[in-house]
Each structure stands twice: as structure tokens, then as C-alpha cells.
Amino acid sequence: MAEQINNLTFAIIKPDAVRAxxxxxxxxxxxxGGFRIRALKMIQQSRAQAEGFYDVHRSKPFFAGLTEFMSSxxxxxxxxEKDGAVRAWRDLMGATDPxxxxxxxxxxxxxxxxxxxxxxxxxxxxxxxxxIGYFFNRLEIV
Length: 142
Description:
Elements: E1 8-13, H1 15-19, H2 23-32, E2 36-43, H3 47-53, H4 63-70, E3 75-81, H5 85-93, H6 106-110, E4 119-121, H7 125-135
Antiparallel strand pairs: 1-3, 1-4, 2-3
């Protein structure tokens, strides 16, 4: 996987979008955006698992609410492949705040707020590798 890291990113369809029935529509947008889905599974994180994943934000005021939300219902985790995957996925998602996201982005269409914004994406190639490894083993990435 290391030789392809610039072509892989990690994505989550968050609990709000799964609850609202948008999973299929978001996956369709991902495929339509030229991504190849290399791994995908629906999971229900425990609070401890969400805290581990978002540990980098532990000292921030939104940490408790974020980890409560991310462990509140199922979400879909994915490994996506495309040239320049991290940037391409972040562009397709749109701004963190759906109200500030560009028209045509996933967060503009499916996000409700900064906290419930439908999707997550890695912010760098290095973090993509870490985040992929948190949820997937090498045998699950095909």
C-alpha cells in the first residue's frame, strides 16, 4: 500500500447521513467523481473507538460531542483510490460547514451543520495512511 499512498484516502459516511438514508447517494457521487472504492464496511463505533480515532482533537472543545455523535449510530468507512485522492475527496466533500460549502459538493447537499456534515476525509497523505490503518487491515483493501 505504501507505494500508492498518494492515490489513496480514507472516507467516512457519518451517522447523520447513514440515518437519513443518503449512503447510496453518496457512494454514487464517489464513483461518479472518478474514485475506485478499494475497501468499504459499515461499522458501529464504540465511544472508546471514536475517541481513539479522533485522539488528535482530544484537547479541543468539540471532542466530547464529536465522539458521542460518531458512536451514536452506524457509519460507513471506506478506502478510496484516485490520482491525488486526498485533495480530490476533500474537493468533492466541500467545506466542513455545509453553509459555506460550494454548490454541488456532498456536504452542501447532505450536511446539516458543522457537527453533522455527512462525511469525513483525511487531510493529508500521512493521515490517510494512519486512518486507513485504524479501520482496515491489508487483506481488506482490494
